[in-house]
Specification:
The protein is α+β, with helices and mostly antiparallel strands. It contains 8 helices and 9 strands.
């Protein structure tokens, strides 16, 4: 808390002017009943003022831990409450260890499939799934938080290309490591035994023709077929006149003359 020094009253003598020790900032206090009670040393009025200020700005340790346990970060709690981040960290540290331990236990649990719990653990299953898809299983991050119903939600984060992806599971501690069930589509794809589905749905890419002009080419117009050439009629050869039969018998020509 910063200490102020009283300079005096303002022109109407109803407010008190104060400044900081280094004289860089000035403040005005209204002379109300709470201030008068504090100046008189009235314990009742002074305690009421202190309680009201602390109730607005300070969370109790259990409240800080409840928010952290439900998934909030230290920065989020400090920003929402206006508290100093070091004070929040002091009470949040044991809960953050609890969350990290829950995430670690969940990786040793067995995913529940359609035919029952898998023989492989969650960590072995997702490692196989990532390797099958050409991804690095060593760059995953795990986190966990407790829901209002008391069950744990486990989050796995990883990067594929330029995308930051997440998958969520429900963790139930129990014998042989407990079980985990997929909570979203990404989690279902990770524990899919066939690894047939991709982790990200990809839209089909249209086939692009290379080295094509901007404007489509139009097929050249077909040249009209030339009209069929007609051959000139061949001149008919003169056929020799055939004498009539009676001319042959009589020895005369068809014109009537004798040979």
């Amino acid at each position: 808390m910063r200490e102020l020094r009283v300079l005096g009253l303002d022109v109407d003598s109803r407010r008190i002017i104060c400044e900081t020790d280094d004289s860089t900032e000035k403040f005005i206090l209204r002379s109300d009943e709470r201030l008068k009670a504090a100046v008189r040393g009235d314990q009742v009025g002074s305690n009421q003022t202190t309680i009201e200020v602390e109730a607005k700005n300070v969370l109790r340790p259990k409240e800080i831990q409840a928010k952290i346990r439900s998934g909030a970060s230290v920065e989020q709690v400090a920003s929402a409450s206006g508290m100093d981040i070091s004070r929040v960290e002091r009470f949040a540290h044991p809960v953050l260890l609890e969350r990290a331990r829950a995430a670690e236990l969940a990786t040793a649990a067995h995913p529940v499939l359609a035919d029952g719990p898998s023989v492989l653990t969650l960590l072995e299953t997702v490692t196989t799934a990532l390797v099958a898809r050409g991804l690095d299983p060593d760059v995953t991050n795990w986190d966990a938080w407790r829901n209002e119903d008391g069950r744990w939600t486990v989050q796995m984060s990883w990067t594929a290309g330029r995308s930051d992806l997440q998958a969520h599971f429900r963790f139930a501690p129990g014998a042989h490591g407990g079980t985990v069930t997929a909570f979203d589509d990404a989690a279902c794809e990770l524990i899919d035994p066939s690894f047939a589905r991709p982790l990200r749905p990809l839209a089909p890419v249209a086939q692009l023709a290379l080295d094509e002009p901007d404007t489509p080419l139009t097929p050249p117009a077909e040249a009209p077929e030339p009209p069929p050439t007609t051959k000139p009629p061949r001149p008919k050869k003169g056929r020799p006149a055939v004498p009539a039969w009676e001319d042959v018998l009589l020895g005369v020509r068809s014109s009537g003359g004798q040979r």
